Amino acid sequence: MKVIEGGRKEHEKLFQRLLDEPHTFDQLEFENLMGNTFKSRLSFNDEVRIIEKRLRKTTGDPLERDAVLAIIEGDDVGAIRLCNMLKRRNQLGLRVLVSRLPPQ
Known about the structure:
Blueprint lengths: L6 H14 L6 H11 L6 H14 L4 H12 L2 H16 L13
Helix pairs in contact: 4-5
């Protein structure tokens, strides 16, 4: 368990931030909060919702992101379609260049 300075109030603020803005943590901190610090307080559904929020706000391969979101949302048709697109893209050796510019 990680000790959080500032006591219970700061701990609760950090927990609320994890629930509301999971994308504001770097990957290592996010994994630590989800897997150690707050693991006992999170239900499976909480974890899914937090991961979904984080995916929607982080940069990366949009095709991979959308495929994972389709799986989370239970969209079987969309997930299969997107996974097939990913498979075909990878077979062709294509790569996605992701812009580092903020969304407008």
